[in-house]
Amino acid sequence: MNFHTDTDVRECDDVREELQPYILTQYSGSPTIVQLLSDFRDNIDPQADINLFIEKVMNIDTAEGIGLDILGRIIGMARVVRYGGETITLTDILIGDVWITSGQSNMEMPVKGFDRQPVENALDYILAGGKEANRIRMFTVKRSRSYNEDKEDCEGGEWFCASPQSVANMSATAYFFAYNLAKQLPYPIGFIAADWGGSRVESWMPMSALKEILTPEQLEAKHNTSIKPTELYCAMIAPIRNFTAKGFLWYQGCSNLGDNDHYDVMMARMVQQWREDWGD
To answer: CB–CB of 209/179 below 8 Å?
Structure first.
């Protein structure tokens, strides 16, 4: 991509300013990345030196470090960053919005459907999955439990780009949401799916929140279930709390039908808790 006009330069500068907060937040735990981004912002100004900007950032053959990745211009390429004695390799990086999706089986249901429960037009979306590889990224948190003890990391899982195989196994609700957003927005969409069929709302909440709204007797009664209160929050939500998120999708409720006296209060408190966790 070449820039020749003042309008081109202004647009590129706008993109840089818009994406900078995403990067700074996402990689805030790495002093090396933060410093690199600061240097990029302070020392390469497309308005002041368009030729240097093209050389260091936009030209795929001459770009240094993670410049192209910062703007989301590199797809399927690696950049080895050496800074202050530390070496970091970044591969296949996209910059965009990431959503957290959670709930029970309605959220868990994959695009390929469950046994004798097909998803309408699923085959068309699965076969076309590869066309969305540069626009949709997906992560499914591996099922795990932890009673009233927050885990620092997920049990497992990895990021996938959209492909026929990965789309087939991803949450249908989450994927269709990401697919429609990606069609309308000029940047990529990712989602982290943390779901468990048959789970109840109290399993997605910490003990401190439950104790605020339930009596000891009510809380004790909710332990007579296959998935105990707090178990999924501590194992599947707590590890991703520091990951920057645009928002949340929640699809749950059926498993609380037999014990729905406090559902409204618990649902409201869960929303409050997650907003607190993600700083909103």
So the answer is: no
